[in-house]
Give the backbone structure.
Amino acid sequence: MTFEESFCCLSEWLREIEQYASNEVITVLVGNKIDLAGRREISQQRAEEFSEAQNVYYLKTSAKESDNVEKPFLDLACRLISEARQNTLVNNVSSPLPREGKSISYLTCNFN
Ligand SMILES: Nc1nc2c(ncn2[C@@H]2O[C@H](COP(=O)(O)OP(=O)(O)OP(=O)(O)O)[C@@H](O)[C@H]2O)c(=O)[nH]1
């Protein structure tokens, strides 16, 4: 949120995701460094308008203050579980098998 040049790269990065990643990919925009309010270059409104226009999921974080850092990963996991339950995920046999990781409760997921 504190560096205009990074924000300006987003359209190009999204274009690369569209070009190289699967159509099924879920894109998350993480606006980091929200603790540095005085150095903010990207307004909340601008970030929200961009994410809405590009149809990407947007979250604000502060890595320094550990604020909202886990949320993007947990929300993404919930969305993948939701899509798997609806069988909308493509079965990609060439994908590596997941290794042991942290388990999350279905109950924490706010399915639509
Ligand atoms: N205050 C603060 N500093 C952070 C945060 N996240 C990373 N940093 C610091 O910011 C510096 C650069 O971090 P990077 O992750 O390399 O950020 P970057 O890729 O340069 O991102 P830009 O802000 O777009 O330039 C490092 O010194 C980090 O410790 C945060 O949430 N708050």
Observations:
- The helical segments are 4-20, 44-54, 71-85.
- The chain has one domain: 4-108.
- Residues 2-3, 6, 32-33, 35-36, 62-64 surround guanosine-5'-triphosphate (CB under 6 Å).
